[in-house]
């Protein structure tokens, strides 16, 4: 959907009012859900509204896509049936034989898909340490590399990639840059303004925020033949969300700025407190001055360092699993970005080849009382 450049207000206002749209027919302050799968053709054989068939597109997506364009500074956006559907569409828009550079630290399910599916399908993929700009420059091959994929902060070590510096390297070699910005949210970082071409979000996480919708999104800086191929992947493969999910996602997004602010502030508090604890080996959080990516995070993240942190527990894997087993408030579950705090032992999820150490627990800070969250972790830590 095309950006409504006419909307002159802040992100907070854009979100709270969902761009101020009302239903013209009923004057309702909440937009209707369009359940129709098919649309009437004009007598002249055209589709006057642009709506044809709901495997390809649905009017319920439009306000969500416009809001995402507004937040990310993009020209067009597409909603997908999941974050993975959005991410894989970016790769399926390439052609067999194309070369891709991807991070060693990234969302595990996507890394698995790249290794097990995309390579069989014919993409040539190099995984590099995105914090090492010389290694990134060496991996990008002019004329061959078509896409550099970034994820920042990157799961589950929260590695920070310098979007501006890497975009410059990619541009000079003619490669596109796509950023999985799920954990930065559209509020803390705007990758398109830093030189990226496409932004991806798992809308299942902070955008929806209530752990009750699976959805994904892509936003492009500008229309291009590559973007049209990605659009065709969604339309022809049917990687679309249900209209009900799209409406529920928009409802969740209307409070995103408040939720993200609370999650960031809780995560910062927890990171600072946990770093002092004798049973904690290391806290990984971009907001800590002790964190390797802190300087770059300060440059490209604004208003907070995200709601995600990881802790490494003294005593190895068993101590980490013990901690997760003994929390009462923190819920042991995968996923992130919801109002409730989640804790997860990642190495056992990610399996062989993971860069994740066995003593690591991933924490998604929700919006509960920060002292109660901290005390719950303290009481669950193994006693020496
Ligand atoms: C969850 C997640 C995805 C995948 O999104 P789904 O909606 O679960 O398909 C991709 N990237 C990141 C960083 C995620 O957290």
Main attributes of the structure:
about 375 residues, Aspartate Aminotransferase, domain 2, about 35% helix, Aspartate Aminotransferase, domain 1, 14 helices, 5-stranded mixed beta sheet, alpha/beta, binds pyridoxal-5'-phosphate
Describe the structure.
This is Aminotransferase class I/II-fold pyridoxal phosphate-dependent enzyme. It comes from Pseudidiomarina andamanensis. The chain has 384 residues and is an alpha/beta fold. It folds into 2 domains: 2-253, 3-Layer(aba) Sandwich (Aspartate Aminotransferase, domain 2), CATH 3.40.640; 256-380, Alpha-Beta Complex (Aspartate Aminotransferase, domain 1), CATH 3.90.1150. Helix content is 36%, strand content 15%. The protein has 14 helices and 12 strands. The strands form 2 sheets. The protein has a 7-stranded mixed sheet, sandwiched between helices. Helix 3 (83-92) runs parallel beside helix 4 and helix 3 (83-92) packs across helix 8. The longest helix is centred in the last third of the chain and has 20 residues, at 256-275. The chain is globular. The termini are far apart. The model has no long low-confidence stretch (mean pLDDT 96). Bound molecules: pyridoxal-5'-phosphate (PLP). Residues 82-84, 87, 107, 110, 151, 155, 180, 182-183, 202, 204-205, 214, 216, 336 line the site of pyridoxal-5'-phosphate.
